[in-house]
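Quick one: structure for this chain?
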Amino acid sequence: MPAISPFVTEVDFASGDLSAPDYIIQRKLSDMAAMYADAGEAARILAEEGDRLIYEVQGMELPAEEGQIPHCTTRILPGRIGDEYHMTKGHYHARREQGEVYFGLSGRGCLVMQTEAGETSVQEMVAGSAAYVPPYWAHRTVNVGDEDFVFFSVWEARAGHDYGTIERDGFRKLVLLRDGGPAVVDNAKYA
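Got it. Here's what it folds into:
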């Protein structure tokens, strides 16, 4: 007998709100300050302006067993820390052999990916774009627009999340404001 019954969740494409999320995670600047290239600017913002919401995840929790496909929405607010656009923490999957799919709902962003061997890829995302994150690729999303960037993601339940590697090493590429728009540049601090 199946342990989980079929269900439907309504998704607001503009906000990313789910009709009945099992969880909501909010990441503020204080949670991510060390991940930005300009740590001094992050510290200044925290001291002078206070903490700010960078992004929010609303998701449906499913057992971490074969065949289950959890899903969530992520809403990244517009803004920058220095010249670096607001972004998610980013992660590898704990089981590196698992992929993921992102579907753009509203706004404009970039999907930054890298392998442990050093290969990188940065893909533009807009409403209606479906982006595939292959197995063995770390991934982070970045809001490069003036409105919320919202996307829907699905992955295999046993994939797990390895945030620690990215917290320690960072990403090889950054998305910064240059000449009035986003530019992909090398990360001088990449470990």
